[in-house]
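Exercise 7. Given the components listed, write out the predicted structure of the assembled complex. Treat all entries as one system.
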Amino acid sequence: MNRLRLTRSVAIGLAAVLLAATRTVSGDIVRDFRAEVSYDDNVSNSDRGADQRDDFSFAALAHVGWFGELARNLRLTLTADAEARAFTEYSDFNHIIIGATGSLRYRIGLGAMAPFVRVEASGGYANFQQDLQDGARYRAGLTIGKRVIDRLALEGSYFFDDIGGSVRLFDRCSHLLAASARWDFSEKTQVSFDYEFRDGAVISYARRPRPDIVPLVNTQGPVETFGPGYEAYNFDAVTHTLGLGVSQALTQSLSVNFRYEWQHTSRAHLTYTGNVLRLSARASF
Amino acid sequence: MAPHRSFSSLLVALCLWCCCSSSAIAAEIAVTVRDSRGAPVRDAVIYALPVTGKAPPARRQKVEVQQRDQQFLPYVSVVQTGSAVLFPNNDDVKHHVYSFSPAKKFELPLYAGTPAEPIVFDKPGVVTLGCNIHDWMIAYVLVVPTPWFAVTGADGAAQLRNLPAGAYDIEAWQPRLRNQAQPPRQRVNLPAQSSTAFQLDLKPEVRLRRSPTDSGDGYR
Ligand SMILES: [Cu+2]
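Answer.
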């Protein structure tokens, strides 16, 4: 409840700053929309093949806001964010997230080739079909980047992520380190490669009894999203994610994107992997 | 403009007829530009340098590189050394135009409308324009030491007009030209020769994209 109130205050605060900023400094409007179909072959984060469940999900995301220059090299971007996602099989994960993001980008120099540092923070509230997962979420971090040649842009980032649930079982905090490279084959086709290191709490579903997981957990509880006999285990683990993406521009404001992610999570003897495929259409005006 | 132009043409014709002096003949030459695969090349600049090295000084003409729909217009411009260029912003957002090119370094910080002072391009060379707000915005101004120039259209064709008779080196330049240091050159004698053709070795297009990407927010 406290988190909810805080999220509302953050959202109202950001909206007020956004309004004030757009009135005093002229800038550009941000209107980014995305429609996505994705497939996750291990939506249950299970280590045993027999427990593992896969699912498709459909999502619509929107970021609407403003960006403007506070100084010659300093840009402020403020957006209101919304996400709605529905799963074909496991509807407990269906959710709507409403939030806001603020970021400040400082460029060392002018133009596309100049290196930059960006700090950003976002907050939101997620409402799940399964009430246990409802809660506020926050993310804050820093990204540094540089376009090294016309065709190649590199970025590195650190983020702290805090996802809250209405019960302790669904609370997850993590530290993330990521690096990415984007290569422009042409003005229309872009290929990206990225790696992410995540250290923090995860939720893994497995059928009882699992005495081998019990000593590792922060908390656990019976959750029947995947059927009777399943237990959700919240424990700290390290996740390595490798991602490969291809983005094809259709027009100057519309693109189709394909992304593949391989995720590998481990803690002591426990290991699970996931393969995620995402196909999305993006529009930006 | 049209009656004035036809009057000058008449005058030129009259002169030709009366004098028949070869040096007074205003010649023209048609140039076609193709890439190594034979496809027509647009946005190629064609310019004629008199072999004597003597070209008349820059005429006072209004040259503009506009910003419209968050793009520069035109993509390629050509001006004679010493020309002044205005950068009117026709968008309802501000732009921050800059150039790091040795031929002309300048910056027009965040502005709307038309800046009062034009930018004078006083050295020959390639000037690459960018916008610090919209990274995909790019355009080129080629500064040449001659008043005889043209830019090719989609058909790869351009016409150089009103050149006094004599020998010229005609050069062809394009933003994607592989050898930027030495644009291809051809010697022509006017009015004996009425057309010429260039085949350019071009790099693939690598303009920064404006379309949204899946990874990274690009301009944000
Ligand atoms: Cu701009």
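Discussion: Chain A is about 10% helix and 65% strand. The mean pLDDT of chain A is 93.
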